[in-house]
Amino acid sequence: MSGAPASPAIQRQPVWFLALFALAAAGGAVAYVPLLTVLLPQRIADLQGGEDVAALAQVSFLGAVMASLANIGVGMLSDRARTRRPFIIAGLIASNLLLLAVGTAESVTQIVMLVMVWQVALNLMLSPLMAWAGDCFPDEQKGMLGGALALSPALGALAGSLVTWAGLVAPEARLALVAVLVSVLVLPAVLLGKGRTQPGLVAPVPAPAVPPPVGERVVLRMWAARLLVQVAEGGMFAFLLYWLRSLAPGYPENGAANIFSLVLVGAVPVSLLLGRWSDARARPVVPLVATALLCACGMLVMAAAMTLAWAIAGYVLFGLAAAVFLALHSGQTLRVLPAPQHRGRDLGVFNLTNTVPGMVMPWLTVMLVPQFGYGALFVLFAGLAFASAALLAGSLRKG
Questions:
Q1: What is the percentage of the chain residues whose pLDDT exceeds 90?
Q2: Domain 9-202 sits in which CATH superfamily?
Q3: Are residues 185 and 26 in contact, defined by beta-carbon separation less than 8 angstroms?
Q4: Sequence-ordered list of residues with C-beta below 8 angstroms from that of 364, at least 6 positions apart, any chain
Q5: Domains of the chain: which residue ranges?
Q6: What's the CA gap between 124 and 160, in Å, rounded?
Q7: Cα gap 233→319, rounded to integer Å
Q8: How far apart are alpha carbons 10 and 283 in whole angstroms?
Q9: Which residues does 109 contact at the CB level (< 8 Å), separation at least 6?
Q10: Burial class of residue 221 in the structure, from the number of CB atoms within 10 Å of its CB (0-12 exposed, 13-18 middle, 19+ buried)
Q11: At what angle do helices 218-247 and 308-336 cross, to 10 degrees?
């Protein structure tokens, strides 16, 4: 009886709010991509008088651990509070202040501590932000929502280039510029989105008396499928330049960065088109299966590549397919989560697929590449992508 009147209340969100939410989500990427990829390594080098790989690895690992725990914990808090926007605003303010504090740190130990606390503050913003999407957007818009989320990595990469643009801002003002950009992207959706939460999407759902068998839980298949693709994507993100230089010694750093940025920007229109198609045809899983297969094909091209041209072609295919997969998957994850009252917590568990690969990938690569070469690593990644496609195809057959 309580479910019957809820359905008519679930409305499609207007395009303006979808666009503002996509920009807010992109603000999250702008908050961490420039810091973790460019500004933090440079800050550590300034303090140490040179590159310090061990210090950077320590900061990255401990930061990832804190991000994983904080995302789940904050998600649970926002579930219990049954509100998201106050958490987002508090996280935005706290993460910006801590970001500025990183620029004033006087030792690597201070940086490690600040980044760990900053990760908690950042996830105070990010965790409820993604849960808020599930509170607002109906299933028939999840494809377009996922497509719009492709904007996040693209703007994150472009922000990294912008804040380090020679002559744009003084080096000591770069973190402040990041804080301003994040605020400009996040605040419009939060301030203008009041009242966008839909009662029919947040009404608690009772747990089933008998849980379905593990093999039939679509949510577990979705989690595992994302993890497999994220392992491959994370590995390529970390070692793209080294691999290209193994084929073409002296290949420039900005060449790899430009390819990476172009792939992410190109993924935005492709993701939007596929997301719109999946909504119109009510086939949410089909684009995920197709892009996972294309990830595997791109990896196999890379494994067989003997020239720079083929290597770049294989990477573009893989990178584009992976970016589209991850964006669309984010939208469809909101569709399959079983209990709206635990949406924040469950998304935190899904967030482990983003953080765990970063902790294990460097060690896997170090074990494989020196002995077997990059080709063996790419064949492994292709196998993971094929497994991801098989998991999703299995969930497609089940319903």
A1: 65
A2: MFS general substrate transporter like domains (1.20.1250.20)
A3: yes
A4: 231, 235
A5: 9-202, 214-397
A6: 22
A7: 7
A8: 20
A9: none
A10: buried
A11: 160
User: Residue 397 pLDDT > 70, yes or no?
Assistant: no
Architecture in CATH of 214-397: Up-down Bundle (1.20)
Structure tokens at 330: 């984010």
Tell which residue, 164, 181, 36, 158, has the closest CA to residue 96. 181
Quick one: average pLDDT of 317-343? 95
Q: Are 129 and 24 in contact (CB under 8 A)?
A: yes
Burial-class residue 126 by CB neighbours within 10 Å (0-12, 13-18, 19+).
buried
Assigned token pair, 282: 């009510």
Report for 143-147, 237-241, 360-364, 365-369: range of highest mean pLDDT: 143-147
At 58, is the pLDDT very low, low, confident or very high (cuts 50, 70, 90)? confident
Q: d(Cα 309, Cα 296) in Å, to the nearest integer?
A: 18
How does pLDDT run across 108-163, given as a tens digit for each residue? 899 999 999 999 999 999 999 999 999 999 999 999 999 999 999 999 999 988 88
State the pTM of this model: 0.91
Q: Got the DSSP string for 266-293? A: HHHHHHHHHHHHHHHHT-SSHHHHHHHH
Tokens 């603000």, located at residue: 27
Q: What is the largest CA-CA distance in the chain?
A: 68
Least Cα distance to 172 among 180, 181, 163 occurs for: 163
Q: Which of 283, 318, 299 is nearest to 392 (CA)?
A: 283
Determine how many CB atoms are found less than 10 A away from the CB of residue 190: 21
Total residue length of the chain: 399
Q: In sequence order, which residues have a C-beta less than 8 Å from that of residue 21 and are 6 or more positions away?
A: 133, 136, 137, 145, 148, 189, 193
- Pair of tokens at residue 204: 């608690």
Domains 9-202 and 214-397 share a fold: yes
SS3 103: coil
Q: In the predicted model, is pLDDT for residue 284 greater than 90?
A: yes
Are 193 and 67 in contact by the 8 Å Cβ rule? The answer is no
